[in-house]
Amino acid sequence: RTQAEMAHTCRGTINLSTAHIDTEDSCNIVLSNGGRTYHLKANSEVERQRWVTALELAKAKAIRMRNNQSDDSGDEEPASQSDKSELHGTLKTLSSKLEDLSTCNDLIAKHGAALQRSLSELENLKLPAESGEKIKAVNERATLFRITSNAMINACRDFLDLAETHSRKWQRALQYEREQRIRLEETIEQLAKQHNSLERACRGAPGLSASSTGITSTAKGSVQSAKGEASDEDEETEYFDAMEDAPAFITVTADPKHHRRSGSNLSGASEGHPEDWNLEDSVFESSNQSSYNESTCKDLLPKKRRRTRIPDKPNYSLNLWSIMKNCIGKELSKIPMPVNFNEPLSMLQRLTEDLEYHELLDKAVKCESSTEQMCFVAAFSVSSYSTTVHRTAKPFNPLLGETYELDRLEEFGFRSLCEQVSHHPPAAAHHVYSKRGWTLWQEITIASKFRGKYLSIMPLGAIHLEFHSSGNHYVWRKVTSTVHNIIVGKLWIDQSGEIEIVNHKSKDKCQLKFTPYSYFSRDVPRKVTGVVSDADGKAHYVMSGTWDEKMECSKIVQSSHGSTSTEGKQKTVYQTLSPKVLWKKYPLPENAENMYFFSDLALTLNEPEERVAPTDSRLRPDQRLMESGRWDEANVEKQRLEEKQRAVRRRREAEAVEALEEGKDYEGYIPLWFERKVDAVTGELICVYKGGYWEAKDKQDWSTCPDIF
User: Model's pTM, two decimal places?
Assistant: First the structure.
């Protein structure tokens, strides 16, 4: 596994200082400590010996550290008792010292009074004038001394009172922290025991052994299982809904020249011809060149020079606790979050980023077969997640009425427009027109649930794609995104769920399954599998790949019903031709890790442009300040914009109350460039583009735009 995956797949810890290190055979290592045992396997005997040596050195170091700690500190409870006794001893010492000072004060007052009486008597005696003046000066000094000593005693008394008051507060706070620590230790111990029992249950469960995986192979092919017979799930399977309708199938790669012979043992339920998989004329062949050749060809076209970098992300420290304690008891959507959690793009720009691999739709236009076209649409739907694998920062929440345009009509043949059409709940409408033969539109509402260890982000709303020449109308919905390690650990993102893409004209379907990450799974991480079938349910293509790297398509030449799984479901065996790459992720630009892991397209999304609407995200001041690295100023500006938006909302609410009292209808906020209509395909009420934006841009007439910045 990669280093990033190892960072979030730790299965627990073992105390090396008391652990026993043993070797079973030439490659296996056994680590045991009380009731916990780990079996590790190395690739070779040399590697095993290197691990044993490293573990022994680490064990010796752990023993030394334990001995040093035991010398420096005793048991926890006696330490706390000593703390208490020391505190009480200090207070007693202060009290006794104060009593001593009070006694001294009384003595000073007594002797001072006597001294003053004596001096007064001396003044009454007939002495030379010079002696009288000296006695008077001494008397004044004695008075000043008595006043000073009284002030000192009063200050000491105030200090003791303050110390006693605060000592009680400190004791209560210290006791509370001790109780919280003990409770946390008990919780962690309980979780560790549950984790250990789960591991033992998984190891002892039938079907987890290699002999019962249900995966077969042939001499001339490889076999892939989209859904294993075993339950390869980790402790977080409860977070994801069971996908009952997910297709269970096995694919076997066939030799085109001998596909009939290799499939002779299969009772063919459906059969295709390898000649249909024509390498010379098929649109798939152009996809084999993949995205790299595509980008090379783009570079040959005359186009506007776009920026290739943004200022590096500053390394600002963040006091998470100071933010969290101010969030207690508040609604999640109303908590003012600093820009430290953001990336310098708005949600509208992130939505536009789905178009990074728009060339897949340009190729889909050329497909004569609707099932072939479905393969490209499926690859496009998966490609939109490729930018999320490293992007753990949240985009800026758009202000109501905020817009974002991306005009690439001359360069790539499309122009895109987004508008924030609702604030509670937040909803954005998106419309894309391509002169190369397709139109895409959607309205997305984001719902999120915080579940302690992770945050689930559920995009609600359908995505529509229509091809102009054929009239094929595709509809699908996005899967759930999960951000793990919200509280502790390194943030990482996973995608899980199913996408069903339906062509409402031909009734073709594609079922894509995004497999959630599991430590115990033998599958590759971020795996996506699916089947493209026609209106009669006949399967034509198998889709496979990962949502962060590439998607491949394999043409089915024969299918049959295989064995029944342990869950009682019958698997389908698909014999396919060699897979062809439809989509491959572009490499990230140089220094991407210091530029929020932005792709080449993302780097250009917030680039300043002339003639855009005054509501465009590029003109948002807090976002621009953050991109420039001026985060403190960005936080101030962000708070100003949010307060301005709240004031507008309060004014609308007052207008609504006033209209209600007068018996009038109040429409509320009306989107500027979109209008609500009932979709003829899904029957849902969605925002669709009503036109006028690009005409207003040509005329530079933005008089209807609200003042939101």
Answer: 0.62
